[in-house]
Write a structure and sequence with these properties.
Elements: H1 4-15, H2 22-47, H3 52-63, E1 69-70, H4 72-79, H5 83-95, E2 99-103, E3 111-115, H6 117-138, H7 146-158
Helix pairs in contact: 2-6, 3-6, 4-5
Length: 166
Amino acid sequence: MPDEVDRIVADWRRERPDLAVEPLEVFSRVTRLARHLDRARRVAFATHDLETWEFDVLSALRRAGSPYELSPGALVTATLVTSGTMTNRIDRLEGRGLVERHRSPDDRRGVVVRLTASGLTRVDDALTDLLAREARMLESLDAHHRPDLAALLRTLSAQFEDLPHD
């Protein structure tokens, strides 16, 4: 069944037959899916009183495993933001009672950021909600095709893995 991207591609083929418009068939759909995914994520996080960036920081800490702590530098690496931005984010999350700073056990001059009990509950609840929403988004795709799609997307995105992040 044709979709909006099929119509756009047909129009471009008619108007610019000199161009190979096949990339639009993939990337226009990826862009549209990304918009839907972004909306679903924002709703899932807002349901749990979180912004997307807050979930990113909290989930990085959660994935670190017990005691759910990382250095600010490790959080910068995990979330691809500047150290100044991360300091601001940690301050805001600490003000909300979702994280706390502690002296690093490995470096007396350093600190680690640790999830509070409230932060742990909040990120776990938001993740559960997010995964349910994302699972519903995948329902139209047969389960046996999902690993193939994941593999294809991994191959396509691998070319960007070693690029510097802004």
